[in-house]
Every structure is written in structure tokens, then in C-alpha cells.
Amino acid sequence: MPAPCAWHDRGVTLQDSPFLRACRRLPVDRTPVWYMRQAGRSLPEYRRVRADVPMLEACARPDMIVEITMQPVRRHGVDAAIYFSDIVVPLKAIGLDLDIKSGVGPVVADPIRDADGIKRLRELEPDDVSFVTEAVGTLVGELGPTPLIGFAGAPFTLASYLIEGGPSKNHERTKALMYGEPELWNDLMRRLSVITLEFLKVQVAAGAGAVQLFDSWVGALSAEDYRASVLPHTAWIFERLGELDVPRIHFGVGTGELLSLLSEAGADVVGVDWRVPLDKAAQRVQPATALQGNLDPAALFAPWEVVAERARDVLTRGRAAEGHIFNLGHGVLPNTDPDMLTRLTEFVHEESQT
Ligand code: 1CP
């Protein structure tokens, strides 16, 4: 019976991977490293395959998803792959009229701002995203012992795109709804939580070895507002994800003041941006939490010696955490020299070798 045997072998080596071990706060022989937005515009091979294919079409084609997800793994030798998609893919899949505009980001044709709008958010069925199941299945076969991270946008960050209609600096309409109409807000957040949970479950059922919930813009909130209006919803998602027995990573930008609450929401790993050193962050999160981060992505534009020195500092401070996964403090910037990332990956591996 070669097939089940191969799966079994993969299971053993996969669970031994430095990435999954660090997520579970187990000893590792080197610090694992991957980069948020490691696929994408920094890679010439990405720009080539995407040249004639709109972003949301690429996100719905298993052949493109597999190729783009594999590109940074092949090139940089990172310790984990992240499933190529976007946070708005599940919203598109339930029929919302939205697009990803090049150089802008997600744009929603008819923003959601009232009870009628919220009713348009139906539940996500696995069949709506059958391309995800197919792509993840192929990917885990190709990746072998390298884990695949599934991901989704968290309800607050998704709500911001839906309410504002696109990227927003101040999230003013989002906050107006949150502060002014808490019942509507909670209805919106509940519906988005159900969609997000289902989208992550589909990825795990197909073989993703970990999940990351991106609440990228939640750093715009005070701790009190986060606790009252967001935490209950993300905690609901994390609690249900717990049944799946894969590490749960939670990340947001500018969340220094929220780190303890982000970890209270129930993640196994908290992602930290570049503003808070990891030794400080380790004091802010709940016990039994690993950290992920946190080199400033803009530092990669400085000379290599500076990058190396800063990466070494991240590794040193990361030892204060119960587990550490090296990453950037946010996504790879589009103009980053990809050779810097390859070199950084090798450096992190060599420096952290035990
Ligand atoms: O490694 C990878 O590239 C993984 C793929 C990935 C991920 C994890 C993409 C592809 N998007 C995302 C998540 C995502 N999308 C987040 C959370 C992560 C983060 O904070 O960076 C957010 C906020 C979005 C929304 C989004 N999609 C933006 C940001 C707009 C804003 O508000 O400032 C943008 C520019 C996009 C488009 C997009 N998504 C992904 C790519 C490669 C692109 C660029 C599209 C292109 O190549 O034209």
C-alpha cells in the first residue's frame, strides 16, 4: 500500500519540521524562517506568470496557485510555504462584487454599510472554493516535509475593506459603524467570522499544516475598543480552530499595545511587527505562546552588513520567547531585492544552528 505509507512518512517528517516544532514551542536545531508576502511582486518569476492574468483569476486557478506558492520555497529555501491567495478571496467566492486593482488592493463595488448590505454576506460552502481544496492537495504533495500555512483575513480587517470600499488610512466609516451601531457591527463580525472559519477549515481539511489569521489593520484600535468589539469574534474563531489541532498564528500591524489581547484571543503564535522588540513582546503575550517576526521589511534596502546585524539582534531577542519563527515585521515590499531574502534565509539558518 504505497500511498498511505507515503502519507504516513510525510506526517512524521512534517511534524518534525522546524517550523511546526517552533510553533509548538519544542526545541529546534535551527530557527525556522519564512516571509509574509514571500510570493508576489519581489519575484521576477511571479511577475512573469502573472503578466496576463488578473489577480483574482490567479487566485482561483489551481495551476497558478501551486506555481506561485512554490516559487519562494524553491528560490529562498524557506521553512514554510504560504498558500497563494488574498484575504478577499472567500468574499468573492460568496458572490460579492469586488476586484483587486493593481497598485491599489481590494476594491468593493457596493460597500456594505447597513443591515441590507450585511445580509448579502451568506455563509461560505466548501464547494464555493473547490479550487482551494484542489490546489492545497497538490501543494502538500509537492512540498513534502515543508509545511503549508493556510491563511485568512480576520473579521475586523475584512470589515474595513467591505465598509470603506477599499484600502483606508483612518478606517473612519468602519469605526463609525463599530462605535455607533454595535448591533449591526456584531452581526457583520459574526457573519465574517463564520466565513473566515470555514475558509480556514477547507485549507486544513485539504492538508495545510498551520493557519495564520491576518488582522492587518486592527492596530488602528485602542485596547478597550479591541476588547469590546473585536476580541470576542476572533476568540470565537480561534476556539473552533483549536479542534483542528494545527498551530494558529495571529498577526496585526501596529499592535504593540494590543499584543496581550491578541494572544488572549487564543493563538499559539503571535506575529509581531518591527515596532516592539521580541524580548519585550515575550513579556506581553500569554504564557505558552510562541512569537513570529520581526525584522523591519524596509531594513532589506540597507547594506547587507546592516541587515545581518539587525537579523542577529532579532534572533537574540527571539530567544526570550518560548518559541521563535523568524519573519519580517510585515510583508515583503514589492521592490525588495530577492537575493537579499535568499541571503537572509541562509544567515538565519547558520546563525541559529545549535
Ligand atoms: O506570500 C504571499 O504573497 C501570500 C499571498 C498574499 C497574502 C498572505 C497575498 C497576495 N495577499 C495576502 C494577504 C493580504 N491581502 C493582507 C494581509 C497581509 C498583509 O497585511 O500584508 C491584506 C491586508 C491584503 C489586502 C491586499 N491585497 C492589499 C493591501 C492593500 C492595502 O489596504 O494597503 C494588496 C495590495 C492586495 C493585492 C495582493 N495580494 C497578494 C498580492 C501578491 C497582491 C498584489 C497583486 C498584484 O500582484 O497585482
From TrEMBL:
<dbReference type="InterPro" id="IPR000257">
    <property type="entry name" value="Uroporphyrinogen_deCOase"/>
</dbReference>
<comment type="similarity">
    <text>Belongs to the uroporphyrinogen decarboxylase family.</text>
</comment>
<dbReference type="InterPro" id="IPR006361">
    <property type="entry name" value="Uroporphyrinogen_deCO2ase_HemE"/>
</dbReference>
<comment type="pathway">
    <text>Porphyrin-containing compound metabolism; protoporphyrin-IX biosynthesis; coproporphyrinogen-III from 5-aminolevulinate: step 4/4.</text>
</comment>
<feature type="binding site">
    <location>
        <position position="216"/>
    </location>
    <ligand>
        <name>substrate</name>
    </ligand>
</feature>
<dbReference type="GO" id="GO:0004853">
    <property type="term" value="F:uroporphyrinogen decarboxylase activity"/>
</dbReference>
<feature type="binding site">
    <location>
        <begin position="37"/>
        <end position="41"/>
    </location>
    <ligand>
        <name>substrate</name>
    </ligand>
</feature>
<feature type="domain" description="Uroporphyrinogen decarboxylase (URO-D)">
    <location>
        <begin position="32"/>
        <end position="41"/>
    </location>
</feature>
<keyword id="KW-0963">Cytoplasm</keyword>
<keyword id="KW-0456">Lyase</keyword>
<keyword id="KW-0210">Decarboxylase</keyword>
<feature type="binding site">
    <location>
        <position position="86"/>
    </location>
    <ligand>
        <name>substrate</name>
    </ligand>
</feature>
<feature type="binding site">
    <location>
        <position position="161"/>
    </location>
    <ligand>
        <name>substrate</name>
    </ligand>
</feature>
<comment type="function">
    <text>Catalyzes the decarboxylation of four acetate groups of uroporphyrinogen-III to yield coproporphyrinogen-III.</text>
</comment>
<dbReference type="Pfam" id="PF01208">
    <property type="entry name" value="URO-D"/>
</dbReference>
<protein>
    <recommendedName>
        <fullName>Uroporphyrinogen decarboxylase</fullName>
        <ecNumber>4.1.1.37</ecNumber>
    </recommendedName>
</protein>
<feature type="site" description="Transition state stabilizer">
    <location>
        <position position="86"/>
    </location>
</feature>
<comment type="subunit">
    <text>Homodimer.</text>
</comment>
<feature type="binding site">
    <location>
        <position position="330"/>
    </location>
    <ligand>
        <name>substrate</name>
    </ligand>
</feature>
<dbReference type="InterPro" id="IPR038071">
    <property type="entry name" value="UROD/MetE-like_sf"/>
</dbReference>
<feature type="domain" description="Uroporphyrinogen decarboxylase (URO-D)">
    <location>
        <begin position="149"/>
        <end position="165"/>
    </location>
</feature>
<keyword id="KW-0627">Porphyrin biosynthesis</keyword>
